[in-house]
Structure formats: structure tokens, C-alpha cells
Amino acid sequence: MKGIIWLASYPRSGNTWLRVVLSHLTEKEWDPEELNSLPIGHAASRELFDDIAGVEASDLTEAQIALLRPCVYQHLVTGLEQPLFLKTHDAWTFNVAGEPVLSATATAGAIYLVRNPLDVAVSFAHFLGTDTEHAIRAMEDPTYVWYEAKTRLTGQLPQRLLPWSAHVRSWLDEAHIPIYVMRYEDMKARPLETFSDAVRFCGLKHTEAEIEMALQVSRLSRLQDLERSKGFREKPVTATRFFREGAVGAWREALSESQVQRLIAVHGKVMRRLGYLDATDDPIRRKRSLRMTWHQKNRAPECPHPKPLRAVAPSPLAGSAPGREREQDDPPVFTDGGACQGMNDYSVYGMHIALAIDLPLPRATSSVSSQPDVVIRFGDVPATLDDPAMSTPILAARPDAFLLSLPGVGRFFVRDGREVCIQPENAVPKDVISLHLLHTVLAALLHQRGQLPLHACGVLVDGGCVAFLGHSSAGKSTLAARLHERGYPVLCDDICAVACTEGVVAVYPGIQRLQLWSDAIQALGLSAEVATPTHPEAARYGFPVDAPLLDQPYPLRRIYVLREARVEPEGFTRLRRVKAFETLLTLTHGQRYMPTLVGKEAHFGRYAGIARSVPVFEWWRPWGLDRLGVTLGHLEKHLKSEPSSKEAKQA
User: Fold this and answer.
1) pLDDT 10s digits, 201-221
2) Cα-based torsion angle of the residue sequence 41, 42, 48, 52 in order, rounded to the nearest 10 degrees
3) Which of 98, 210, 510, 578 has the most neighbouring CB atoms within 10 Å?
4) pTM for the whole structure
């Protein structure tokens, strides 16, 4: 089978157990002791989406993410010769273009795991850190979105669950893809037979002895031991542990009779279909086997037929669209200062920028040259980019040009590190334009001008910059806000522009504004009244920082990579140069397209220069706003220390 095989389920139905077993069978080099490095990833991983799309999901609306996800999965399976397993909790739903969010064209099949909703309610409540009544309400809520980032950024994209029974029907009644159904109860009662059927469904050639061995090393007691000793990063902060008893029938002691009857009233049809109710609609209390394969799904006739699929059009970014003439490729270039009259002058990241709209950027001083380094204007932008060296579902790049096309927002064209042209769609607010202009577009511009836009915030310590790197949701901005309170001026947030010149590594001052989510705002004791919203849907705000005007480059003294310590003690580990090089490479804005803009040799040379000249540390710390004060004390102590001779030698 070529394409994605979805490991699909409503939450708390045995999905991770299946992932562990399949990882043992398909990834021979995976160390079974490393539970936190499961080879089978999550379809809703924000990091995966950001990497393939080339733009951060945190800058997009939920509808825009749903439009792009099918393209991401199609891009992911390009050239694959073997099946790719991905976990998902999404219901099989469609975006506003009528396309399946999980892309039918990228799909080889699905293993759908289902569990008695009475037991799901109990396990779900523990996972959410709430009572069973709250979990039952979530299971019947048609608007419930898993990992919806409204008040804080999460590591997963929003996933529409639908009510439990609608989630089940959305998969079991999907006529366009082959599906194998696994009941959790059969996985527990007849593991070898049930898992063997799933393995054969996937087209894998494993013996029963190999499957039996995978089941032995994946038994629940062992997973619990691994979680206790090493932690499990997929456990949410709301849960005391991820791997619980996994018991069948735990609902008998945990649910009241009224709760049982309420779940049956809402989900009874599907429960009966799956063998969880008897002929009188009473819950089955004895162990009953119901072997289901994709050949024997018995789709219920009362379920509506799914929407017809729409073919996904090829990306409009790579070459001219078929059936019409190519639009003008390159907008005109400003060649004289008079063309910039009436524009706003700013100075940021070492650039004098003439900008057609007013944005919260540092104003240019009188010492700045009257001739701008960069002009940002509105105008016609080509719909396609000729001869792109690389492309993603929404962007394309070649050495002299970068084109970003965002549905519902508009198109952005960056050329030669000198010009940005914006063509917004009708009635797009200025705040939405500035959101993408100051992130993805600005990062591309910096790449073209020879600077590395690290995914980091930077503060000044003793006349030099200390940068804190991390993916979205790592807590960089919150950390910078606390350090600012302690007297460390903020040099930049989100984008840390680094230049390497003749062995000197320096950071240019950026936008002196912190982007914070509402939970961080509350924990920091800040007022949203002094900030401006930076996202059209989520509670994310930009806070100006009270700092002196910083208009010169500062030497980069240290880099800290933010890591979450679940079980490991908090501490600092200096990275060897090769590891530092690899880490910097993965924590840079636009990592997919930057070699195209600057050339591979120059691109890798920049990272090598930083890794050779600047100490890079991994900072393992417990995440949590309540622990921030303690961890900052450890950081300040480490900032005052010099790397040991042993660390320096090892690096």
C-alpha cells in the first residue's frame, strides 16, 4: 500500500498502543526504551505542518489550516514507495472547498480504533483533568474542537472531533477509502488475532512470532514503567499520567446510572452497531468478540452518504496555471527616492524600510540614510512564479524571488532583498496583512539580505545578546517578558536576525514587541488593554516593551535551546558543534526554502560560523507558568558562569 495509512480514533481508544506495536514492527532501528521518540507521528503536529507548508500555523485561522492540510499530506507522500503511518483524532470532515481535510488522494487506507463510549467517557475525563460530566458533554458536542488554540498555543493543530457517534460514522461510512475496524475490547481480549488482522490489512509481511514479540514489549505495564521513569511528552498537563489501567468495563464503577442512560440515548445506534448494546439496549456486560474487517463493515443505510470528493488542484505557485495566460512575473522596481514619498520610514534589523502602511515598528532616526534599503508597497503580484527551485502548498522560491499565496489573505512577493509587493484580497484587515508581513515575509526578506532569522527571542546581557530558541509554544516570548521585568532589555522576539561577517556573529535589533497568549498575560499580571490583538481568531496580543532605542548590532554571546524536562532534572547541556549546527538548522524561519534563496554552500556556512563561535546550550526545564520564577533563578546563575574547559573542549 502506497500513501498514508491513518491510525484514526476518538481520543482515549487505544491509538498510542497501536502506534507502539507498529513502531516495533516497522522501525527496526527504533530503541523501544525511547518512548518519547515514537517513529509514527501525529497528523495534527504543528511542527510537521509548519515545516511542509512553509508558514506557521499559529499565524493562520482554523479555516485556512483546514484548506492547507490536504496539500500538506499530498506533499508528504510524494515519491513514497512504502505506506506512511500517521495518528489522527480528526473526524473525517471536509474543508470549505469540499475537500477531505485528511486528503483522500494521499490516503492508502485507515485503521479505525473504537472503544465503548462508556469507558471512553471515564478515560477522557482523567485525560482532561476534569469530571465525567464534562467529558460526556464534550462527547455529545458537535462543535467540540480538540486542541483548539484560543487562549494559548499548543503543539497540535485544531482537530474537529464531532460527537463520539458522529466521529465513528464519519470513518466507518466513508466509501472512498479502505478501512479496518479494531475494537479496543478485542485488542485486549484477543490481541494476537486482532493485531495480526491489522498488520495483514496494511500489507505488512510479519509472522505471528514477530507480532507476538511486539505485543510483549508493548504491554501496558511496560509502557507505564517507561512513563514513570522517563516521562511521556504526549501527556497533557491536565492528566496525572497518560497510560492508566486501560481496563474494559471501568465505567461500571465510575458512571452513574443516569450518565449511562444519557450516553446510550445519544450514541445508542452506533453502540448497537458495534456490539456494545444488546437487543434491549442494555450495555453488554460479558466479554463479547466482534471481529470486524474492512470487508465486513456493514455500513448503516441510515447514515448520509459523504460529500463527493473534489479533485485537489495542483499548487498555483509552480508555473503558470493551465488554461489562461501567465500574469506579469515581476512587478516594477522602485529606482528613485521620489517613489517613496508619503511612505512611513522605519529602522529594524539593520534595514531602513519605506512602508506603505503604518505598523508598530521602530521609526527611522535622522541618522538613517534617506534612500531606503527596502520598499514595501501594495500592487499587482504574479499568481505564479516561473521556474521555482522549490515550492510548498502556499509558497515558491528561487534565488532572486519569493512568492507567498495565502487563501483569504492575499499574495506577497519578495525580490532581491530590496522590495516587497503586497496584493491583498478584498476587505482584508490591515492587522491580518501585518501578521504575515512581519513573520513569514520578513523572514524571507532577511534570508535574501544574508541574515539568518532564527526562531528565537533575544535579550541584552552585559552589552551582548543572549538568544532563546524554540518551536512555537516553547515559551520564548513569556520568558522574554519575565527577563524584561528583571532589567534585561528585549532586543527581538520571534525573529532573531543573525549576521556572520568575517568570524563576527552579531544580532540586529528587531521589533521591540512581545507576542503573548492570554494565559501568559494573566500569569504575568499584564493588561490586554495596553496591547493590540495580533491574530484574527485567537487571544494573542502584541505588547510594546519599554526599552531604549536599539539601533546597532550586538554580539551574540550565547544561545539557549528551550527543552521540556518531564522527568529529567532541570539543567544546562552544552551542545557539540555538529549537534549545535543541526539544532540551529531546524530552528530557523523558512528552513525549507532558505537554501534556495542563498545557495546551499552559503546557507550551511552561516550555521557553521555560529556553531563555531557561539556556545549553544540545551536548557532542560519544567514547563509551566507557575515554575517560571524558579527556572529564571537557575538561568541567571548560569548566565554568570563561564563554560567549563571540559565543555569548551567537547564542543
Assistant:
1) 999 999 999 999 999 989 888
2) 100
3) 510
4) 0.83
